[in-house]
Amino acid sequence: MAGKFFAVVVVLITLAIAYCVIAHVWWMPVDISVHGPKIDHQIEETVLVAGLLFIAGQVVLAAFAFLYGGAQKKIKQIPGGAKPLVIFAFLLVGTEILALSFIGSKAWGAVYFAAPDPDSMRVDVQAGQFAYYFRYPGPDGKFGSIHPDRINEGTQNYFGIDTDHDPDAKDDIVTAELAIPVNKPVLLTLHSKDVGHSFYVRELRVQQDFVPGLNIPIHFTATQTGRFEIVCTQLCGLGHYNMKAYLSVLSQSDFDDWLKKQAAEQ
Amino acid sequence: MKTQFRIAALTLLLLLVAVAFMRSAPTVGASATGQIVGTVKLDGAAPHQKPIDMSKDPACAQAAGGAQVATENVVVGANGGLANVVVYISPGLTGNEAASASQPATIDQKGCKYVPHVVALNVGQHMTVLNSDKTAHNIHPQPSPTGGNAQWNKSQTVGAGPIDVAWTNEEVAIPVKCNIHPWMRGYIAVVKGPFGLSNDTGSFKLDNVPPGSYTLTAWQETYGTQTAKVTVAAGKPVTTDFTFKAK
Amino acid sequence: MQQTAAHAAVHHAPPQGFIRKYIFSVDHKVIGIQYTTLSLVSVFIGMALSWAMRIHIAWPDTHIPLLGWIAPSGAPGGLMTPEYYLSLMTMHGTIMAFFVLTAAPMAGFGNFILPIQVGAADMAFPRLNMASFWTTFVGFVLACATFFIPDGPPLSGWTAYAPLSAVGAVAGPGQGWGQNLWGLSIAVFCVASLLGSLNFIVTTLDLRTKGMTLSRLPLSTWAWFINAWVSLLAFAVLLPTCLLLVLDRLGGTSFFIPSGLVINDQLQPHSGGSPLLFQHLFWFFGHPEVYIIILPAFGIVSHILPTFIRKPLVGGWKAITWAMVAVGTLSFVVWGHHMFVSGMSPFMAMVFSVPTLFITIPSVIAVLIWVFSLYRANIRFDTPMLFSLGFISLFISGGIGGFFLAQPSTDSYLHATSFVVGHFHFTMGLSAIFAALAGFYYWYPKMFGRMMNETLGKLHFWLSFPLVYAVFMTMHLTGFAGAVRRYSALVDDFMVPLLGVNKFISICALLLGATQFIFLFNAIWSRFKGPKAPDNPWQATTLEWDTTSPPPFDNFGGRQVTVYHGPMEYDGDASVMQTSPAPSIAGT
Hints:
The complex is a heterotrimer of chains A (about 270), B (about 250) and C (about 600).
Chain A: H1 2-22, H2 36-67, H3 83-112, E1 121-128, E2 131-136, H4 167-170, E3 173-175, E4 178-181, E5 185-192, E6 197-201, E7 206-210, E8 216-221, E9 226-231, E10 244-250, H5 252-264
Parallel strand pairs in A: 1-5, 4-10
Antiparallel strand pairs in A: 1-2, 2-3, 5-8, 6-7, 9-10
Helix pairs in contact in A: 1-2, 2-3
Chain B: H1 2-24, H2 29-32, E1 34-43, H3 58-64, E2 86-89, E3 105-110, E4 113-115, E5 118-122, E6 126-131, E7 137-141, E8 154-156, E9 163-166, E10 171-178, E11 185-191, E12 195-197, E13 203-209, E14 212-220, E15 224-232, E16 237-239, E17 242-245
Parallel strand pairs in B: 1-16, 1-17, 3-6, 5-11
Antiparallel strand pairs in B: 1-13, 2-12, 2-14, 3-4, 6-9, 7-8, 7-10, 10-11, 14-15
Chain C: H1 5-10, H2 17-23, H3 28-58, H4 65-70, H5 82-118, H6 126-145, H7 177-206, H8 219-250, E1 262-263, E2 266-267, H9 275-309, H10 316-330, H11 346-358, H12 360-373, H13 383-406, H14 408-414, H15 418-448, H16 454-480, H17 499-529, E3 570-571, E4 574-575
Antiparallel strand pairs in C: 1-2, 3-4
């Protein structure tokens, strides 16, 4: 009786989970990046492979619990002992693993092993407890030097640039929002002011930690306009839950207007 | 006859008591203390106050109701009046913690700004910190490490009660920031004795100043301090003005 | 190796007096019960922390009076501040991972059972064993002390990443002396664990009784033995890591802190350190740690299954043991999968991904062995068996989630979401707990001489099993929807729509917690009122069942036990004890 009940419970749970996954009851948001489809495809492949193993494992467990409770006529082992199980594990799982790794490396490579487009728009991103600030190089295309001892949040000099004496810094545009033009390659350089943080935009399929002491490049091209959350996913202190900014993907003309307006406010 | 005498004696007694009472009252009206009034001006153009983008916390942006919020490092009103200047009596005044010490000063976190941007209060006077926003704040005053005031850091979540503190040492001024919203800045000026805070026309007033000669200091967060000598007589306000030069 | 000089050293005189018998005892059985008791206390503390967290997530305006009393600044008026939520989260992870999951299945049951299973009178180094328990206890006291200091417990997570954990109190509330105490507590725990590992290894190699060849060792003993090696190598790295962290905080060093950091408007005086170094050191320990937690579970379930399926495991002792050796060995070369998006070289990410996926193979072999051993068995569904079956189901589910996190491309979306939280709660959390509960219900009669109540045990299982899925599988799903972990409040655009499902998770978690009191009541009540236990209530075959319940002081009452059989000679109702001179059952 207990075995049959266990089997029913396991099968019901398995069906509920399978339904939620297949019907995408809770699922990823729309993908808005050029490399996104590769990652989404990899996730779908993994759902299929892992999902089949999951269902098979739970169903077989349930079936045996259902069938073999109590005293049977004769105890028997599966033919061949452990050997067929070991071979199955190596062959089936091994092949799946190799396939996933091979195809998955292309998805990963699209994000990290491809060189950024040389015409990428560059933005400097600083994460600090508990906000992000973004810096555009301005018409001279150069970023002013960062002086940590000059950082003054009260006057909104978040990057510690010296606009009085550093010619490169004079036209830097510092914003609290990351606006980018649609369908144009963007190269971000991530650095942290204080502790570890992370840059995560679900729709972009991009997640990259900020490491204090390192300047980490990530690049992508957004394919749809809209307003998307950038959130911190690396525990950084009490305000971690409230650390975010917005990514605005705009048409080229809207972006140009925006940048002009921001420059006027510096 | 005897009754009339008793009434007269009683009236005289009451009169004497009233006079004695009046004489022993502390600062009553202008007859015992003086007043310092004046205006603080900025000579030159105020530096551009950059608008603050609060989009990281929609509760902040909502509270502002669409109005543009900017930094308040230099707030200049009409006629060049400089606001948020703390004017106080520098060493020279002994005793007489002002009567205002009984009322707590208030600082509110509203629209993800400190309201008021600068609060002035006396040593030992209570300060109440409120959170009127629909988001948590983490109030963090940063007194000088050698000044004697304790540094602390407290979170105030939505619906949390007020925080009550008092400061033990004079310090002009303690910067205060919010650990969660990096653009928030305010100042707490802790002084001994009478003080004034200039409003948006630049005018300030120090009440209940005992007669005497003093050094008056005016402090502004960007431009620092200026001093002036002043003599206060009882009953009459004395005027001192300050002018800060824009860099 | 048969009788050695060490054997003689283990036979010591029976203790006199309450203190020597129950407090500072060198008897492995008392020490095993002490560890198990410490873990029981810890698991209820750890659960209580999680209840406070889940209540705050679902109903953030709740005032929790007890919390306000313990932490007037962390939770003024009982209203939890963001930093206190993170502190509770940090201590939940720390207490559960170390004082429950690393302690109970290994040090708790292992200490009580292993010497008896190999036929010894005690562990090889009884005084060292006593020292390792009391050292663990000191670690526990240090961890609990963090709740009562003004700055409160640390908030950097059980993973304590630098520089947040390394720069000191300037990093904000929760990073004061609590982090120092944390580092010291874990360092002390490491020492205790290393001492324990020595005992397990030497006892298994040197103190086996006559006839107990390695091929006849029960699978639980194999698991504890393999695990002791993994522990030795892993905790040996965690110990200096904690000390380096404390040095950065108190000693002015900069192992993990680079230059140029501005925290709370102050330029930090450190330079030259690397935050990634901390992560490598931590995870070099941290990944084997999850296998340190799960290997004893593998052993306990592999040991219990034959008793209740009345047949040996498929492949005998060799297949499952080699699977455990493979898992333990591979666990040392996969740590980088915690660091795919950490700033570590993306090429190294691919390098770590391959063995991470390959470790699936021995795990799958183990699962297949357990599942296919059920084929044509005579299954008895007593409580230990129910929890063993539950373990298998939970481990399959948890392991499947691993496929998504083992590949950098898919992990780049799921990293730091609630998917990860669901995954590790299934694998190192609830699977290990279910196996530990199976072991508890199985060995309770031997340890305490009483039977636990079967009805309450079954109720405990049937309520817990679906609730575990309800709480932690749902987290896998919300992770796909972009729910980020370690958030003290759900205020983001993505998090707000998930408030409803999070309330569901919280309600199920509180129900799951309440259910555990059935178990606690059963464990305490049965100790005094349970029916007296026979020597071998489950008709099992290994050496612990060939002595009284509970065993006498020297385990076998002065008898010389000789082993003639392997540990799994079962055939339906028939079975042959390891110590029985009777012939083996054909085919077992």
